[in-house]
Design goal:
mainly beta, two-stranded antiparallel ribbon, globular
């Protein structure tokens, strides 16, 4: 992506326990070198912040064939960005909001052979619409705030 992609923070969540429902919050504290304060993955060294595009979540709800990850994937941050920009967001890019910088370390990753969508040869928008990131710089982020996704400086 040669230009910046702009969007908005649609929703923020904290997941205190693995596999349990999350709690929606209005403001999240992102800690430099870590993740979202209070989240189960706060100190995950690889990528403690999970991010998803709102369009990917809406797409999942419309599918008659559920993917294995539909119930498993949990996002700390849901961002509203243009759907046509999803495939342009790559590892190493940065999500920036005010003084917060999150560096995207990996996308959703591989699909599982036992997934019904994989068995049927159906596409999955989660591969393009969710990412895991690490905090390069921290601060507070609120629902409704504008974000930019850019090449790393």
């Amino acid at each position: 992506m040669s230009r910046e992609c702009s969007g908005r923070v649609d929703a923020l969540y904290i997941f205190k326990e693995k596999g349990k429902p999350g709690r929606r919050i209005r403001t999240a504290e992102i800690v430099e070198g870590k993740g979202v304060r209070g989240d189960f993955h706060f100190e995950d060294v690889d990528a403690p912040v999970s991010i998803a595009a709102v369009s990917a979540g809406e797409w999942m709800l419309r599918q008659s064939v559920q993917g294995l990850c539909f119930r498993r994937f949990k996002a700390n941050m849901w961002i509203d960005i243009p759907k046509d920009e999803l495939g342009t967001i790559k590892n190493g890019m940065q999500l920036v909001c005010k003084g917060i910088v999150l560096e995207i370390k990996k996308g959703k990753g591989r699909c599982f052979a036992e997934c019904e969508r994989v068995k049927r040869g159906l596409p999955c928008l989660l591969r393009e619409g969710c990412w895991y990131a690490v905090s390069v710089s921290g601060g507070s982020i609120c629902e409704g705030e504008r974000v930019k996704i850019r090449q790393k400086k």
